[in-house]
Design brief:
The chain has helices at residues 3-8, 19-37, 43-53. The chain has 78 residues and is mainly α. Helix 2 (19-37) runs antiparallel to helix 3. The chain is elongated and about 45 Å long.
Length: 78
């Protein structure tokens, strides 16, 4: 069983040495960095990028910058 599978089952897991989880965290960090660098007036770009990062969103929401998360895909809004 992978560490990600363990985490999804609510079991104790170690994300520090699992290549899949390390890569997923890095991907989320890159998207967060890009999001945080966008000008606050770029509403459409901000929405598009944050929807790429998050697992599920509603049509209307607002997340202020700076925003940081570990993976993003497990965050749902609405």
């Amino acid at each position: 069983m992978t560490e990600k599978e363990r985490s999804q089952l609510g079991l104790l897991y170690n994300a520090n040495y699992d290549e899949e989880l390390i890569e997923e965290r890095l991907h989320a960090k890159v998207l967060c960095h890009e999001y945080n660098q966008l000008h606050p007036r770029n509403i459409e770009e901000r929405e598009t990028l944050i929807k790429t990062l998050l697992g599920k969103t509603t049509d209307r929401f607002l997340i202020e910058q700076p925003f940081v998360c570990d993976y993003g895909y497990n965050i749902e809004i609405g």
